[in-house]
Amino acid sequence: MNIPNFKDLVKKLSVIRTNSSLLLPIGIGLVAVVLFIPNQLLSGRLKQQIESDSVNKGKSIQSIEVVPREQLEQKEKYHERYAQDANQIALLAEQTTKRELLSYEIFLDPNVRSTSALIFEKFGQRFRESVDRLLAEAKAGAPPTKGEIDRSLERSPTGSRTGAGAGRASLYGRSSQTMPYLGYGFGKAAEINRTIVEEICLERAKSASVYTLATDLSGYEFWAAYKYSGADEAVKDCWYWQLGYWVTEDVVNTVNSMNSGSKSVFTSPVKRLINVSFSLGDGRRRGAYTGFRRGSKQTDTVEKPRYVRSVGDALIVPCTQRYCDGYIDVIHFRVRAVVGVSAVLPFMKELCSARQHKFKGYFEEGPEQTFKHNQITILESTIKAVDPESQDHYYYRYGEDAAVELDLIGEYVFNKAAYEPIKPQAIKDELKAEIQTGKR
């Protein structure tokens, strides 16, 4: 066991006692060192926090654009107008389809199925009268018929129809075998008859602004030969031909607008409205696309307007990709016309332009208002030269300007909400049945 050396302890204590004045500074230094390290760590963290929470937020506040009160009020007004524009667009979309009806009795009467067949015949009469009115406003006329030509030639100095075809053929340098009149001879009588025919045709062209007949417009002959076959079918006929009439009305009004101020076919941009139909014609009917041109699926002697609910209902595959849905209804139609070469694009533009119509409510619940509708889109256009020697144009005179035959396929869009309250139940049942049976 080692015994402590008291002399050494005394010496150490004496040293401490001698330097006791240094103990306090040394202690303070040690405490400072101990506190300095955590303080540096804490200050770094505090600096980062101040940088992120205070300095950066201060910079962002400085970068905020201070909007004057007047400018803020202007922005509020702008947003209000923006909302109003959206509402106005929806309102205008409905107004396009809120149109006058040919018969308010049929579409507003829920018990129409139990009424007499006379109400449907009355609809057909109004349809035809309305078409006649449209054509009268357009100053439409017709070329002379073969019967009229025959009767005129029989009263001519030659006393017969001899030479009518030969005269026309010699005028265009073609054989008389291509003309409607065949084997009527040649010579002076033929020249006289040619002159007579030409004068008759020219007079007809001078007396009208456009060539067209009521029977050229789809639906006119349908209602002329209409036979009642049950209330449901009659209601559906009336509904689809109401849609068809709106299309026909827009087409004829387009012709009338284009020919405004013209007193004869010679000065009219639109010289002939060949037909307005809801099929491809020539035995073809709505079908899927087959190759470059449109194909056919079925034929039908009566071509009524039809809702385009799928490609099978379409005249062509629509480039717009529009079909009937929860918001719109769509039908396709075809227009063929003879127009001046320079009028092709103006005619197409006018056909797709907005038009005004009057409306006072389906139930006459308000004052008459003026609305606009713009429902046509052209899906396809085809142009071909007019052959004046062909049978289709033989008695027509279009003037000196070059003319072409314009063939258009278009779509017509209806706002569903606008006329849903008056859409017949028979139509709704039909469309619902098509969905349930998988036809759509």
Please provide a written account of the structure.
- The protein is of the alpha+beta class and 440 residues long.
- The chain has 2 domains: 92-142 and 214-436, no CATH class; 144-207, no CATH class.
- Helix content is 46%, strand content 13%.
- It is built from 13 helices and 8 strands.
- The protein has helices at residues 6-18, 23-63, 69-97, 104-108, 118-137, 146-154, 164-172, 188-206, 220-224, 231-258, 344-351, 416-419, 425-436, and strands at residues 140-141, 210-211, 270-277, 328-340, 355-359, 369-373, 376-385, 403-415.
- Helix 10 crosses helix 11.
- The longest helix is centred in the first third of the chain and has 41 residues, at 23-63.
- The termini are far apart.
Low-pLDDT ranges: 162-179, 283-301
Query: β content, as a range?
Result: 5-15%
The averaged pLDDT comes out at: 80
Based on DSSP secondary structure assignment, what is the total number of beta strands? Answer: 8
Number of helices: 13
User: Oligomer, anyone?
Assistant: single chain
Kindly provide the radius of gyration, computed on alpha-carbon positions and rounded to a whole number of angstroms: 43 Å
Counting helices, strands and paired strands, the structural category is alpha+beta
Element order, helices and strands?
A: HHHHHEHHHEHHEEHEEEEHH
- Give the CA-based shape: elongated
Estimated helix fraction? 40-55%
Q: What is the straight-line distance between the termini?
A: 113 Å
- What count of domains describes the coordinates? 2
Q: How would a textbook summarize the main sheet?
A: 4 strands, antiparallel
Sheet with the most strands: spatial strand order: 3-4-8-7
